[in-house]
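To whoever is on call:

I kicked off a structure prediction for a single chain this morning and the downstream step that reads the tokens threw a length-mismatch warning. I double-checked the sequence; it's 312 residues and nothing unusual in it as far as I can see. Pasting both halves so you can look.
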Amino acid sequence: MWKHSLQFLSTQKLQIHTATTIISISLILFSSAVVLVNGAGSDANWCYDSLSCGPETWGGTCLTGKLQSPINLELSSVKKVAKSVNLVLSREYGTLNSFFLQNNGFSVSLLLNPDETSPCLVRGTGFLPNEPYYFSSFHFHWGPDDYTGSEHQINGRKFPLELHMIHRQVGDPNKLAVFGILYKISETDNPTLAPIVDNLILVQNATDLLTLIPVPAAVKLVDFLPKKVRVLRYQGSLTTPPCTEGVVWTVFDDIQTISARQLMKFRSLLKKDTRPIRNNFRPVVPTYTEQRKSVLYMKSIVPSLSSVKRNG
């Protein structure tokens, strides 16, 4: 049986500067960070659902890159790796955190601080040694029905919702590690998503990048991670323009659930032209290229508070 190591990092050893609570001081930093991750500037000239600005028209690296995302993860073709996956999280990853929401007209994002920093750290297999990443933000992708919406596919199967958890390297915030979590429809609400879904009404209307809404609720980031799973790891890109490459992707092969009622709340969010956001996913691109010759499939037990060991 493969062994797995999971522990919480001591923030006394791995420190990053947390954001100021004064939103007005932090907005410039926040604006540049969100443009990089979501590719959604206030004057963005791309979209998802138009022949004139949809994914097939995206240029630059989106068109010429060889390590693009998202991809279809065909389990019979990926390279199975017989070793443990070591995910090491700081204890802040498992504590309740207040948060902000933002609707930029493309998706809804969650941040813990206005400038997209946080004390929630992660490191482990596939990341540079001794180079932790901090949680930066997360956002969602969905479709117009219960059968499409995810960006990644597994064995050609599409899912109605996908969560992207963005992490930035402490030493170089331009280096990204993203967790991709897929959802299927359930008859019951997902309680982990409830603090977000129940407050989407606060951000129903799209705003510019400088508008963040504090939410009267709290979340534990660790709760969004699947409990038992194989993880799929590959080198990819941002899934929105400018489609920057060099992103370490970890897609969890343990499908989470969301109710149809909860999913409708996402579809009720509005674009800047006041139309509902019903389609905000990029179609899959070629999985294997000359530069990306393999995708790794690794067994792992994903973090749970009961299995955490502290050091320091």
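Update from on-call: the warning came from a stale cache, not from the record. Cleared it. Sanity check on the structure: The CA atoms of residues 44 and 268 lie 22 Å apart.
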